[in-house]
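Chapter review. Work through the record for MerR family transcriptional regulator before attempting the end-of-chapter questions.
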Amino acid sequence: MATTFLRTSDLAQELDVHVNTIRIYEASGFLSNVPRGTNGYRQYRAIHLEQARLAHLALHWPYVGNKQHLIDLVKSAANDDLGMAMEFAYEYLADVRAERTHAEAAIAFLERWAAGYALDASSHPMHIRQAAAHLNVSIDMLRNWERNGLLTVPREPANQYRLYGSAELGRLRVIRMLVKSGFSLAAILRMLQQADSGNSRNLRDALNIPSEEDTHDYVVVAADRWLASLLKLEQRAQEMIELIGRMIEMLHTQ
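Structure tokens for MerR family transcriptional regulator:
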């Protein structure tokens, strides 16, 4: 029985991408060797389609961590080292889940602050250099957060130097933890504006659901809905694991 080969356009149509994307996958080493017929046309097999599907699933933004790890995963599959690809996929799943844990912890920290609990016990106001050292951040970061509207810092009447008291330092701790956990400044500002208006309920949703005005004013990126994005990334990692499992089964049945 003659083998039925697939064309570049067949792979592109299946993945809903341009044919040049498939050619880039091949040139990048994301597909195993593709033989050519006597007419010079590429002769893709079913395994090439699954390899292209894995590359498409793994490498489109957003992703967590170092993209090179995902590239190594895809290339391992292309080199028929599916055991290594599966190992990389589970490591990536662990990375995504760790990011989710950090994001959830940051939100719990936020909710404690919103409930009125003090987050800093500093007994005297600090100037910006002292505050930066106290929080282990740079002066530029403090200025940037203020410039982006995340907080207003009172000033000394005599010289207009910034004075950070316990309230400002506590708020900055929330901002710093959310930033470190991957939330965008736009999402944090949206949440803080809601909290400052007296509505401290559902601040988690404020971090993850842009307002109607936001969606009309700019393109909402993944970091503006980071927790929701992490849930999707975990699902994507699970899909990668299932796909590699199918590829292993395909090779075993050949």
